[in-house]
Amino acid sequence: MSARMRSLGLIVLIVMAVSTLCGLGAWQLYRLDWKTDLINDRNLGLSQPRLLITEEYKSNLDNIDWKRVEVSGDWLDPTLILGNRARAGVRGLEYVKALRISEGHAVLVNLGWSREVHKDLVLADIDELFVGSESVKGLAINRSQITASKTKDGLWTKFSPLSMTTEFPSTQLLNWTITEGSLDGDFTSRSKLLKNGFTPFINTTPHLEYALTWFGIAGVLLMVVSVRLRNSNKKPKVD
Predict the structure, then answer these.
(1) Same structural domain, 71 and 168
(2) Got the DSSP string for the chain?
(3) Banded model confidence at residue 56, pLDDT cuts 50, 70, 90
(4) Does a structural domain hold residue 145?
(5) For residue 214, what are the domain limits?
(6) What pLDDT, in 10s, does the model give residues 182-202?
(7) Residues 72 and 155 occupy one common structural domain
(8) With 60 as the cut, is the pLDDT of residue 34 above it?
(9) Among 46, 70, 95, 154, which residue is least crowded by beta carbons within 10 Å?
(10) % pLDDT > 70, the chain
């Protein structure tokens, strides 16, 4: 193979590599833009006045997702448990109960988180404190696309009304849920063992840094190849 053909092949490979790297960088910028819009929309919902849930909101998910709500109803058994919920490196569990808000309809409520070792004490608290009729305040979230399974230990893998409906054969669970509590770390619950509440939605993925990394690698690759090609084209000195 001639030197010219080798150079041409190298150029084609470099162009493909640089195009791929730049494409990855552009994808990260797209993800950053999409997530920024999502964060702004969700935090705007959190800043709005609390919605009092009425009959019209049962299936109107667009008007309720990521908004602070208040709903009244009657607590239903059993208590469901979400497993593998670590916080700050501490193994824990989250506890869920259904609140019947109308005849034949209920919404799942996340009561809060507690250390795994406190499981029996928390269940005893829930059986005593979360009974009868009550008005619940918290954050509404659309979970219509989430599915989950139940482990052999009786713990649920995800918060999924669609899957958890098997626990309530005579009641239809709504596809949105409530995380009980208040905004900005006001983690108070009737049970001293439970930490509830919610915080503003934030982006924890450094998309901009990822994009700059991909663009930087592409730039370095172009510089290296440019230097190599320039050096290879220099004519050797004749003494």
Answers:
(1) yes
(2) --HHHHHHHHHHHHHHHHHHHHHHHHHHHHHHHHHHHHHHHHHHHHHSPPEEP-GGGSS-GGGTTTEEEEEEEEEEEEEEEE----BTTB-EEEEEEEEEEETTEEEEEEEEEEEGGGHHHHHHHHHHHS-SEEEEEEEEEE-TT----B-TTS-BSS--HHHHGGG-TTSEEPSEEEEES-BSS----SSTT-B--B------S-HHHHHHHHHHHHHHHHHHHHHHHHHHTSPPP--
(3) low
(4) yes
(5) 3-40+204-232
(6) 876 555 567 788 888 887 778
(7) yes
(8) yes
(9) 154
(10) 87
pTM for the full model? 0.77
Domain match, 96 and 158 both: yes
Rounded to the nearest 10 degrees, how much is the dihedral formed by the CA atoms of 51, 53, 56, 60? 70
Regarding predicted confidence, which is higher, 47 or 3? Answer: 47
- Angle between helical axes of 207-232 and 3-47 (0-180°, round to 10): 170
Give yes or no for a contact between 75 and 47, defined as CB atoms under 8 angstroms apart.
no
227 domain-assigned: yes
Query: Residue type at 106?
Result: A
Q: How many domains does the chain have?
A: 2
